[in-house]
Design brief:
Shape of chain A: globular
Distance between the termini of chain A: 75 Å
Number of strands of chain B: 0
Number of helices of chain B: 4
Strand content of chain A: 25-35%
CATH superfamily of the largest domain in chain A: Chloramphenicol acetyltransferase-like domain
CATH architecture of chain B: Orthogonal Bundle
Number of strands of chain A: 18
CATH class of the largest domain in chain A: Alpha Beta
Largest interface: A-B, 17 and 16 residues
Distance between the termini of chain B: 17 Å
Oligomer: heterodimer
Largest sheet of chain B: none
CATH topology of chain B: Non-ribosomal Peptide Synthetase Peptidyl Carrier Protein, Chain A
CATH architecture of the largest domain in chain A: 2-Layer Sandwich
Largest sheet of chain A: 6 strands, mixed
Structural class of chain B: mainly alpha
Number of domains of chain A: 3
Structural class of chain A: alpha+beta
Strand content of chain B: under 5%
Chain lengths: 357, 79
């Protein structure tokens, strides 16, 4: 059985780990070159993996499995691999069997899910036929107030996509050194007619990238006691409409006009809605803007993304006071309040100056 | 054009979640409070789906009012 090629998780996505969401064929199915063989999910988007050449496919992962960059997830063989698939099935059955035999314990599906969720050694549960109630009882007697048996309300397991998102956002926040400062932008003026846009976001992104040029420390990140500054300013816009949080990138934002940024923003929103954002659209942001202005938000604290120093939050316009709030959450390991405040004041000045009196 | 305007009006009502919303050819984004970048693109996608057309996004970006939007929809319906 000659292996023609091995399919690995590509590096061109923003995460180190992805989730296998769907397999398009079964083992030993014949595939053609460029056939979509599986879908994988990153914290930002879904990606289709294609067959690099035709042949017979063997999958090395199942839907729901996590896989890391570079991991081989499938192989394409020159000829029929029915024997290999058969022996793989037998071997997997054999692997499952001893576990049951060695413990001599049987558990219901509900109980097994709980055992798996809490990482409990099945041998520690004092019953040969384990039901959910047995696991609840075990948890109640072996853990604190947060055991599932004592939780108030209904629990719902988060999606794998959400867990990847949490992982991506945990990196900076878990260091516990994130501060947030706020500033109001006064709107006692409106944009000139030739710069009319139906949102302040393109203007904010443009002025933000120009302010970053003056404060490049905010275009960097902390890694292993070093601060690494990016070569280019690529602002990412966080979007969460109805398909999860995705951050699409405005490449070299500081070189774009407000109109060009507006075009990119529209294209990004359009692709989000059409679920056609590519890994390229979502990779390489060096600073993020989170815009919650559509939701009547007075002010909020955004979460700093992995491999970034700061994130700008845009709140809703207060029509009575004719102003809106900007928040800047920043990694204190990279910079401090004084610099962040100077950046935010500069940004406020730039935005207000762009609004003609 | 009146039929098209009525049809578009129904899409606007859905996007802006306002059953009483009335539009005319002169309506602009300034006349509808929630007509921001996000809702503008939701509107574009819903109009595309409703009329089974695909806009050129650059063209959409330069539309000034609902009248322009009607003309644009008419154009793509005939392609």
């Amino acid at each position: 059985m000659k292996i023609l090629s091995e399919i690995t998780i590509p590096k061109d996505n923003a995460d180190e780990e992805v989730i296998i969401s769907e397999l398009s064929f079964s083992d030993n199915d014949q595939v053609k070159k460029s056939d979509a063989i599986m879908d994988i999910e990153t914290s930002k988007t879904s990606i289709e993996l294609d067959a690099p050449e035709g042949g017979y496919i063997e999958y090395l992962v199942s839907p729901g499995d996590a896989a890391v960059i570079g991991q081989v997830v499938a192989r394409i063989y020159e000829g029929d691999i029915s024997e290999l698939v058969k022996s793989k099935t037998n071997s997997s059955e054999k692997q499952d069997a001893p576990e049951n035999d060695s413990t001599s314990k049987v558990a219901t599906k509900e109980a097994l899910i709980l055992i798996d969720q809490h990482g409990i050694d099945i041998n520690l549960i004092p019953s040969d036929f384990i039901k959910k109630e047995d696991v609840d009882l075990y948890l109640a007697s072996h853990s604190g107030d947060k055991s599932s048996a004592q939780k108030a309300g209904n629990s719902k397991k988060i999606s794998r996509l959400k867990s990847l998102e949490i992982k991506a956002l945990s990196s900076v926040q878990s260091a516990g050194l994130v501060s947030t400062i706020f500033i109001n932008i006064d709107l006692d003026a409106s944009l000139p007619d030739d710069q009319k846009v139906i949102s302040y976001l393109p203007l904010i992104a443009s002025k933000c990238s120009q302010a970053i040029e003056k404060f490049p420390i905010l275009n960097s990140y902390f890694l292993d006691n070093e601060i690494i500054e990016y070569d280019s300013i690529n602002i990412g816009l966080a979007l969460d409409i109805d398909d999860g949080l995705k951050v699409f990138v405005l490449p070299n934002t500081n070189t774009l006009s407000v109109d060009e940024i507006e075009g990119y923003v529209n294209e990004g929103i359009y692709k989000y809605l059409r679920k056609s954002l590519t890994p390229e659209d979502l990779s390489g942001s060096t600073f993020t803007i989170s815009d919650l202005s559509q939701y009547g938000v007075e002010r909020f604290i955004p979460l700093v993304n992995n491999n970034q120093a700061a994130i700008l939050g845009v709140s809703s316009v207060d029509l009575k006071l004719n102003r809106f709030n900007l928040s800047l959450a920043f990694d204190h390991r990279v910079t401090e309040g004084k610099v962040a405040s100077e950046f935010l004041s500069t940004l406020k000045g730039e935005i207000e100056q762009a609004l003609v009196k | 054009m009146a039929d098209l305007l009525n049809e578009l009006g129904e899409v606007f009502k859905k996007v802006f979640k306002d059953p009483n919303l009335e539009i005319s050819e002169a309506t602009t984004s300034e006349d509808i409070e929630r007509w921001d970048s996000l809702n503008n693109m939701i509107l574009v996608v819903m109009i595309e789906d409703h009329f089974n057309i695909r806009f050129d996004l650059d063209e959409v970006q330069n539309l000034k009012n609902v009248g322009d939007l009607c003309a644009c929809v008419e154009k793509y319906k005939n392609i």
